[in-house]
Design brief:
Helix content is 27%, strand content 32%.
């Protein structure tokens, strides 16, 4: 039996502990002993990146925001999906420990090695408002993403969704993944003016009866010709 090694730990604003753990060569982010990022979210994060990147492969300068760094699985995937040299990938991560852990424990990830990646800390509506009509896509996996001041996921915040809508270019995508269904998200995305499609991805693609995780693709109108 291979041991589980606790690599790093910090306390979140609500007093809970966030733990970075290694087991058998794999990394996990845990809260209350529950995995919020790691092998159980890898398939959804990669599919999220694949679906969000698909419309923008012809773009010369794709401009992508990722809400929450996590273990960098979505970031690694979308930087590979969109290899354009003039692309930009902005990670919004308000918790300073997460980038520091990447430097110490994930030296080969895109966060450290891809010069197109930058880091910001403000994830609120005002930060999105400053991007007015410039973003191709905003990606968020709700399990590992930062929460709003009410300790709720940002996609459940109507003002944040309105700001995300305004920040996107025509045809831009707000792409959201979660480990569990959330009827409220679908409804609020529609109320914010998005055209919404829901996809599912298996947690463990090789399992005989895999559990499915939802991905919502919310599009802002149609792209300008």
């Amino acid at each position: 039996m291979k041991p589980r090694n606790n690599l790093e730990e910090t306390t979140l604003q609500d007093g809970t502990n966030l733990l970075l753990q290694e087991h058998d060569g794999r990394l996990y982010l845990l809260v209350h002993g529950q995995q919020i990022c790691g092998p159980s979210t890898a398939a959804a994060e990669k599919e999220l990146a694949f679906l969000a990147a698909a419309p923008f492969r012809p773009a010369r300068q794709p401009k992508i925001w990722l809400i929450g760094l996590g273990l960098g699985q979505a970031l690694d995937a979308i930087t590979k999906e969109l290899p354009q040299k003039r692309g930009s990938f902005t990670v919004i991560e308000p918790l300073p420990e997460i980038p520091a852990w990447h430097h110490r424990h994930i030296p080969d990830g895109a966060f450290k090695t891809d010069a197109r990646v930058s880091l910001e800390t403000d994830v609120g509506p005002s930060a999105l408002a400053r991007q007015s009509g410039t973003l191709h896509a905003v990606l968020i996996h709700m399990d590992a993403a930062p929460l709003n001041p009410k300790n709720r996921p940002w996609p459940e915040d109507r003002s944040w969704l309105a700001a995300a809508y305004q920040a996107l270019q025509p045809g831009g995508l707000l792409a959201i993944a979660s480990s569990r269904p959330n009827a409220m998200i679908y409804k609020r995305l529609q109320q914010a003016g998005f055209d919404v499609a829901e996809h599912t991805v298996p947690v463990s693609p090789n399992a005989k009866k895999p559990r499915l995780q939802p991905i919502w693709l919310a599009r802002k109108g149609r792209p300008v010709d």
